[in-house]
Amino acid sequence: MFAAIIVVLGGWIAVGASQPISAPSASLQPGDEQRGPQLSDAETSAPLAETTHADEVQSSSLAIVEPPLLGKSAVEVLAMLTVHVADSGANYQRTQDFGEAWMDVDGNGCSTRDDILLRDLASPQLNGCKVMSGSFVDPYSGQSMSFTRGNDTSTLVQIDHMVALLNAWTSGAQRLTQDQRQRLANDPTNLLAVSDQTNQSKSASDAASWLPPFPEVHCEYAARQISVKYAYGLWVTQSEHDALAKVLESCPSQPAYRSSLGVFAAPTPTTTTSPVPPVGIVGDTGAGTYYANCSEAYAAGVSRIERGTPGYSAKLDGDDDGIACEG
Asked: Per-residue pLDDT tens for 102-141?
């Protein structure tokens, strides 16, 4: 289904197995940061995975496994997305809204996590469906890593939702059916094996507040987010749109991708004829909302509160950029 991943770092070429993939499932709450694999059966403990950083990238082509092409550029598809303020994220519940993590949506008998590991890791060693070991280059950081399955080591490699589930929830997913949301949570186009450090750093951020530290993948990363939002009819905030457009200025011919699980009618943003206060980037819990600190806001399922929206306070905006509690 997917092409082999080819990564060139410091002269080393890793070719990952091209395998059928079951759609991955979702990560975590409240911000969709990966808490690590859910180990339902006992896994053999193993030494910590050895990691080495790729200090010298001799090729600019660090490739992420590419889904089928959509036949349009990412710039064209971005122009087709609705720009709208974010819905409230206060009622977001990962499992209730998007289903259990590591579902087997393609029915191949293997967990989503193992399907993605099999797709993204080079030289994977298997025990049935389970990927026991392998190597890969974290596309977000350019860091070369070896993976060994174990209670203490599996979490070093995590599966990122490029469009975080909380971001999806606040940009139209509340209007999708449960089946559509489960497909979104398990869509290979939206999933990527990455290091725990970069996944935790990203959390539930959109492109306006976080891009991979490795700039070689910015265009691909932006295209994947745009493609997923298009496939599921999700919208973007103005700041998110502008950040994605800025990335694509350097790669106007970057293609968009076709999702194998989604392509649904766009959810219609709720409209009203009466004036309403602007909605925060993630949460809008009403006028007069007050948070003593960002921890309190995060506990309420709220983050990235824009200046002028309910819950914003200058004391929560440490860098005075107009967005408080950026996460």
From this structure: 888 888 899 889 999 999 999 999 999 999 999 999 999 9
The distance in angstroms from the start CA to the end CA of the chain is 35
CA distance linking residue 30 with residue 142, whole number of Å: 27
Does this model's pTM top 0.70? My answer is no
Contact 142, 62 (CB under 8 A): yes
Identify the three-state secondary structure at position 305.
strand
Q: Report the pLDDT averaged over residues 192-219.
A: 97
Confidence (pLDDT) at 33: 40
Q: 32 in the Ramachandran plot: left (φ > 0), alpha (ψ -120 to 50) or beta?
A: left
**What is the secondary structure of 67-120 as a DSSP string?**
--EEEEEHHHHHHHSPB-PPPP-TT--HHHHH--SS--TT-SSS-HHHHHHHHH
Cβ atoms 93, 29 nearer than 8 A: yes
Tens of pLDDT, residue by residue over 276-327, are 334 333 433 344 577 777 767 766 767 777 766 777 777 777 666 667 776 5
Distance of alpha carbon 168 from alpha carbon 199, whole angstroms: 17
Longest dimension (CA), the chain: 61
46-60, 73-87, 259-273, 290-304: segment of lowest average pLDDT: 46-60
Tell me the C-alpha distance between 310 and 290, whole Å: 8
Torsion of CA 155, 15, 188, 22, to 10 degrees: -80
Q: Enter the tokens of residue 236.
A: 């973007």
Joined tokens for residue 139: 């596309």
The domain limits of the chain are: 6-271, 277-327
C-alpha distances in angstroms, 14 versus 4, 54, 135?
Answer: 9, 13, 8
